[in-house]
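User: Structure please.
Assistant: Input sequence and predicted structure:
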Amino acid sequence: MRTVGVEEELLLVDPDSGDPKALAAAVLARAAQDDPEQDVFEKELFGQMLEFATHPQSDMAALGDEIVRCRKEAARHAGQIGCGVAALAASPLPVSPSLSVNERYQWLAERFGIPTWEQLVCGCHVHVSVESDEEGVAVLDRLRPWLPVLRAMSANSPFWQGRNTGYASYRSRVWNRWPSAGPTEPFGSAEEYHRRVADMVATGVILDEGMAYFDARLSARYPTVEVRVADVCLGAETAVLIATLVRALVETTAQEWRAGLRAPDPGVSLLRLADWQAARYGLEEDLLDPVTLRPRPAPLVLRALLEYTGDALTASGDAERAERAVGELLRTGNGAREQRGLLERTGSLRDVVTECARRTQG
């Protein structure tokens, strides 16, 4: 059974006003004081962000329990200094980001200017174990067309600096301002993958391989494929669904590679359009079908994803849970729909943030 780990970035907010608070250093200090050996929480690019990483899990129920536990622990540490956490992929309220004290982050700010300062966005990265870099690259080459579907399912950033963006995942539009971000062409082999990344670093435009911000990549630290398209999800159950489907995609595409099936080769230009469509509308309008790259109703595309990964889901014991979770997601909507519904009911973006913080903290 392939193991799965999840990294989530959370927004630190004032529990009363909803304003983002640059208190990551204080939250981390409190976490270290409570547990000197804790290795779950880390700082991120800005002081208004806090990241945690789960341990590798083979059981998805256990992964879900750990995500919920980490969120509650983050809320507890933040609450001790009068702060809250919210699983929001972008701040609905205006904010002036505060750069964390870090030589790498300073380099980014000096190198890329304004786009760096606009990167106060929170994602969810899913790591799935692979047997080798060769298997990992075979997976990367084959799951590319399905990544926009995961984007649409996780979309949770409709507001930006006090405005309705019109997008379900505006975070993805901000993130893609990095020169190395987005979909990739097929690599063909692990050797070519590593050569491509080395060539990118050699240009001097990016600092190192950690800045190869592909939508999906080989992890530089772990023997995993890392899928990076998802917004941090408002509900932990959605994060578990995304992780479940990523593992099933990895297993399905790895089996195709072992069977000698060729990787599909849609052009990057078409994948960018599919990604834009997913970011713009989430699950509210058509998605581009991963096979035909033509418009198709979102529920049918999600059904196609379940069918494509069906054998892997059944083998891991996740089929029934995934079916149920997809049905619930289509019924209640992703985080973007929930945020817009909250705004419609309350008329206040501050109330949107504080309610999302309450939900994040369980």
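The radius of gyration is 19 Å.
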